[in-house]
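User: Just a sanity check before I run the rest of the batch. Below are the structure tokens for the first item. I only need the designed sequence back.
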């Protein structure tokens, strides 16, 4: 019964999504999202449970579907719905749906920024560990939001301008604030990592590491490294400074799968992908995943996806941006293997970040680009209990051609010829393609981070859409670059959002690159 109720709610939301609006001006979020039935004397720190479960929303699943699944999970190449939403004119075919695409913003401000601000006000100076933890959570959530839209409300959150609006940070300024917040958080937490009281306070509300402050410091350092690499093409000097700061910190970065940032639902809720996949049949494997996993003969394929029923015994993905006549045509393609926890970062990603740091000549990477690349692959294999990756890493196999058994016009050859085996004689760009392709495989199912890295590097090489309903706003070959600013912000914070758009250096469309997307 619960699944059926959620299904009906989702269906209604998606039908109405083209005209869906809510009163969501960021300046009003705290008032709008205050629960009148919420006890006012809850323990300081209880808000962390809400925050951790909404960086990537656990429930209801329709929110997650709009927050990430019908945006980044598809644009990353990981997944594709068999469902021709809105007559096949939707995000997948670059007809961006405003009523869908405001939800990453809505969730971030209503269920992350607002409760964190409330917690910090309640904590005051009595709980420095909570104030530091809040900064880490804020950066974790809001860099994802910035990597969707570009400019965001961050340093000015909760501060009204003379005109009654709330001012934005450009993406460049937002990233600088992210680094500052990580500085403050790590500085505050490092002397508390062995403090029994601080750890006990964390443990009450920690849905990731059970109160282990050392692991939170390692995560914060790893997050700094992620963001440093993200800006490496647009601000190489700052990227190097920030990366080396993360790598040289005495507590270090995440080095094994015990440090993976995986969020467990406090109420036992299932992962929302399981609802989308099983109850609704609204998501399936993406064609790039099929091409690369099968071409590499990658054993992670069956850890991520179920064999299809349309071509029994094989993994079969759907190509993004195609003409889908009916859901039943593609529902038999590969379903997802049900994930159990929300994944925000894994140790394998950090090894690939370090491999790129070594490739760029930054200090402190702790190995060569090859050794760190190979350790990243092995760590990903370890995460899924797959044993030694030695034979895989010796393989010269490459991506396979894509064949659509429903419609041959969607067929395509392999988009890339890199292999798992490290090519030491290859160019720096070829080596980067190898690193990012394996990082892309290891970060699954976090489509948000995968989409960001694809836009930054162009890797792994993905198939272009065949149906482009953007009216020329988005180039099919270059792919979608961002999501336009939320429609409610134009209605309720218009003066400030217009200023924010100017920082993009282009129109507020899906074809305008973000600050760090310079290629």
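Assistant: Here's the designed sequence for the first item:
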């Amino acid at each position: 019964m619960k699944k059926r109720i959620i299904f009906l709610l989702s269906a209604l939301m998606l039908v109405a999504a083209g005209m869906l609006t809510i009163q969501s001006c960021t300046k009003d979020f705290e008032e709008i999202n205050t629960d009148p039935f919420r006890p006012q004397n809850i323990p300081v720190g209880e808000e962390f449970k809400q925050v951790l479960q909404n960086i990537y929303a656990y429930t209801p699943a329709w929110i997650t579907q709009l927050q990430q699944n019908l945006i980044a999970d598809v644009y990353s190449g990981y997944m594709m719905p068999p469902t021709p939403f809105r007559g096949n004119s939707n995000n997948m075919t670059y007809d961006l749906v405003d009523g869908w695409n405001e939800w990453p913003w809505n969730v971030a401000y209503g269920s992350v920024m607002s409760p964190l601000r409330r917690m910090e006000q309640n904590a005051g100076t009595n709980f420095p560990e909570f104030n530091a933890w809040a900064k880490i959570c804020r950066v974790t959530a809001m860099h994802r939001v910035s990597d969707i839209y570009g400019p965001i409300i961050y340093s000015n959150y909760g501060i009204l301008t003379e005109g009654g609006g709330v001012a934005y940070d450009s993406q460049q300024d937002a990233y600088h604030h992210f680094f500052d917040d990580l500085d403050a958080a790590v500085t505050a937490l490092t002397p508390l990592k062995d403090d029994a009281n601080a750890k006990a306070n964390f443990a009450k509300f920690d849905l990731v590491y059970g109160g282990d402050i050392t692991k939170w410091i390692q995560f914060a350092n790893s997050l700094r490294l992620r963001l440093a690499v993200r800006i490496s093409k647009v601000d190489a000097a700052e990227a190097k400074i920030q990366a080396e700061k993360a790598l040289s910190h005495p507590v270090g970065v995440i080095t094994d799968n015990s440090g993976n940032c995986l969020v467990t639902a406090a109420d036992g809720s299932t992962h929302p992908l399981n609802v989308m996949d099983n109850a609704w049949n609204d998501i399936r494997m993406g064609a790039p995943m099929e091409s690369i996993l099968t071409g590499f003969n990658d054993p992670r394929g069956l850890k991520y996806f179920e064999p299809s029923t349309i071509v029994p015994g094989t993994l079969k993905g759907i190509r993004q941006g195609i003409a889908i006549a009916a859901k039943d045509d593609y529902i038999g393609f590969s379903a997802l293997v049900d994930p159990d926890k929300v994944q925000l970062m894994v140790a394998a990603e950090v090894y690939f970040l370090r491999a790129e740091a070594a490739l760029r000549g930054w200090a402190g990477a702790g190995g060569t680009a090859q050794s760190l690349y190979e350790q990243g692959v092995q760590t990903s294999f370890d995460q899924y209990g797959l044993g030694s990756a030695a034979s895989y890493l010796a393989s010269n196999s490459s991506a396979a051609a894509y064949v659509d058994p429903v419609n041959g016009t969607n067929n395509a050859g392999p988009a890339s010829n890199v292999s798992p085996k490290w090519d030491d004689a290859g160019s720096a760009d070829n080596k980067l393609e190898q690193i990012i392709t394996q990082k892309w495989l290891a970060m699954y199912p976090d489509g948000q981070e995968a989409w960001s890295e694809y836009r930054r590097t162009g890797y792994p090489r993905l198939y272009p859409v065949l149906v482009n309903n953007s009216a020329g706003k988005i180039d099919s070959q270059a792919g979608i670059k961002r999501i336009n600013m939320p429609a409610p912000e134009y209605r309720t914070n218009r003066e400030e959002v217009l200023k924010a758009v100017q920082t993009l250096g282009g129109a507020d469309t899906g074809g305008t690159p973000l600050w760090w997307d310079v290629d």
